[in-house]
Amino acid sequence: MRRQMYAKPMTTARKSLYVCLIAGATVASQAAEYRVAVDPDVGAARVEIRLAEGESSDLFSMPAWAPGDYRIVNFGRHVRDVKFWQGADEIPLKDGRANGVNAWRASRPGDKVTYTVLAQPPGIFSENLRITATEVFWNGPAVFGWLEGHAKEAHSVRVETAPVGGVFVCPLSGVLDAKSSERTFTAKDYDSLVDSPVVFGTTISTRTFIVSGKEHVLAAFRRPASLSLTDFETTCRAIVTEAQSLIGELPYARYVFFLDVGGPGGGLEHADSARLAIPPGVRSTGVAGFLAHEFFHAFNVKRIRPKPLGPFDYTRPAITSTLWWMEGVTDYYAELLTYRAGLIDQEEFLANLGYAVDYAMNSPAAETVSAAESSRRVWEANNSSGFGGLSYYDEGKAIGFCLDLAIRWKTGGVRSLDDVVRTLYAETSGGKPGFGDGRIRDVCVQVGGSELAGMYDACVERPGPLPIRDALAAHGLFFDGRGIQRSPNASADALRLLSQFLTR
Ligand SMILES: [Zn+2]
Questions:
Q1: What is the Å distance from ligand 1's center to 350 Cα?
Q2: In what order do the strands lie in the sheet with 167-169?
Q3: Residues with CB under 5 A from ligand 1 (ion)
Q4: For labeling, which of 105, 208, 461, 498 is most exposed (least CB within 10 Å)?
Q5: Ligand 1 centroid – CA 67 distance (Å)
Q6: pLDDT tens-digit map of 416-452
Q7: How far, in Å, is the centroid of ligand 1 from the Cα of 135?
Q8: What is the mean pLDDT of residues 35-63?
Q9: All structural domains of the chain with their residue ranges
Q10: Which runs of consecutive H residues, i.e. helices, occur in 133-228?
Q11: Is domain 205-296 in CATH 3.30.1380.10, yes or no?
């Protein structure tokens, strides 16, 4: 384990600009080459996209939204000075800002585009572009646009880290050119490029650990001194190990926990990393559920997903009725993983599930809005948590619990929601397409039997209280109006099912 495996020599002279290159890679005849210069004094980045020889495009776009944050942001709002070029000749824009705030069209195709990205406010879940004298962090959609017709190409990314220098971390493996201080890494396409955050600077602490032969990096920045990475390794290792045990594999070559200590917002998942806002000085057990939630997204959302959630169309809302599963069931598994890993005890586990059931039973919004509608229409609310006042996080967590108990009950404890998750994972991981509408329901029925169909519809498709009473009773539990309680006169069968559910 090397604490500073990305350390590089410090530059001696402070330069006012430093440069990032995104160069043509494995498909050299088709790939574009980007060049970015970031100015810490001004707080902006200059970006250049150069297409391969003979290639051209007349449309440059920035994303309207960032995957994981289900609302329109319009990252083009923070872009200035878009210019098209053919060689050294500037090409006039055709209609100014074509296609709204996120797209620019040239009067004829060119082989290069240049633009400026301003450092910008954080989103709900992540910093976007933060530039200080000692640290730079970016979330891909805030910085990188694409040229029409070239988003599917491979990119190799070269980052000049001077003058900030220090440690460089990105989920994509990098190679350092010591002479130029340039860091090169490869993204297989635009989706991968914008899904790979970068942080570098002189105030970053890192620690690595291995699970199942895969390297996991803890990268703490902004206020890293207040955190014990030894402590965080213990908790993250336990969560990763438990998830590996559930699914049977870890779906990435390398994973990064970006720990933004004292940073704004919550967490944002990526395929091979997550950015998490961590309160300064906190113990890892105090944020174990949060760590588990973002980490489990590497399976659920980044691999298990409906078709609109990858490959992405960044120009319009990705409408799906399954965000209750993507976020709420992820929250349910965050609870399960932290419990199974021994990070919370039985009483805390049941109490936390009780809070979710309380929400699903007593929330006024649950009377009028279904989990499916809350998911599908979240873009109208533009709040990234659910339409009609119904949180698909809390409602979905309760639904996950309800479906899990129902499957265990109907199969005599032989099957569980774990089997649904593993089936969906097998169908969608490894680069396979996302699932279509109705697939989660089909797999629940396949795993739990025909009675799961009605249960699923009542949980997901229709508003109203969660139909969990009988499934709880089958496990010797009941909902007392506020939380989950153990029934004093549970049958032997019920106690056996409860024991199986609580086994870790
Ligand atoms: Zn989430």
A1: 21
A2: 129-131, 135-138, 198-201, 167-169
A3: 327
A4: 461
A5: 11
A6: 999 999 999 999 999 999 999 899 999 999 999 999 9
A7: 26
A8: 89
A9: 18-201, 205-296, 314-502
A10: 140-143, 190-194
A11: no
